[in-house]
Design the sequence.
């Protein structure tokens, strides 16, 4: 069972999520929260596998709540799936930097939300290629290259790993990378795992951010 905590300040949306998720045989909603502070408190007590997190909330917003649950230095991070109104919300990029494993739009179909939870619970990030490119285009001014020790980490990648890393940053899925480089899907998975390990990254979300920050892609 995937244990889920739902955090949204709108009671109607929370109720809808709880109903949809609760109908799934492999998902159990273990708690609800109406603000980020309550989510952090409940996550500490309930230890859910995934927190479905809104961004704009009173008391403590979803970005800071995500940072406390999944950000750098958190000893026992919880996976966070941000569900937000993208066209109105200017904080998606900050949420990903804070540690979110992915995001969906609030107008997503129920099946997409359910699969999003399963994807994040498996340890994968939720970045569809088209959405990745849209995110980068919308927040490109915040992804300017910065000098850091990450440059040395990038130097540790082999030529092929660097090529795969660039394709990840461009939003390609494993299947698309395999087709582009004419290698097997399993080989791509191996490369991705090595890249994340070498660069000390949690998932593909962080890989995309790092690639833009280091200037590997622009």
Sequence:
């Amino acid at each position: 069972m995937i244990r889920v905590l739902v955090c949204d300040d709108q009671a109607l949306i929370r109720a809808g999520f709880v109903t949809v998720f609760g109908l799934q045989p492999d998902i159990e909603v273990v708690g609800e929260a109406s603000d980020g502070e309550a989510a952090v408190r409940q996550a500490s007590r309930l230890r859910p596998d995934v927190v479905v997190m809104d961004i704009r909330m009173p008391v403590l917003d979803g970005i800071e709540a995500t940072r406390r649950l999944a950000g750098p230095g958190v000893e026992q991070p919880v996976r966070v799936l941000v569900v937000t109104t993208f066209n109105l919300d200017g904080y998606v990029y900050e949420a990903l930097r804070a540690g979110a494993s992915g995001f969906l739009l609030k107008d997503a179909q129920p099946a997409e939300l359910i699969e999003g939870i399963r994807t994040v619970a498996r340890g994968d990030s939720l970045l569809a290629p088209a959405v990745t490119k849209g995110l980068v285009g919308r927040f490109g001014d915040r992804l300017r290259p910065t000098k850091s020790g990450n440059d040395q980490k990038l130097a540790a990648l082999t030529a092929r790993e660097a090529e795969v890393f660039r394709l990840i940053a461009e939003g390609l899925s494993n299947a698309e990378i395999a087709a582009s480089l004419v290698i097997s899907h399993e080989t791509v998975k191996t490369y991705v795992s090595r890249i994340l390990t070498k660069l000390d990254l949690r998932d593909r979300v962080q890989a995309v951010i790092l690639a833009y920050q280091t200037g590997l892609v622009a």
The chain has two domains: 2-126, 140-213.
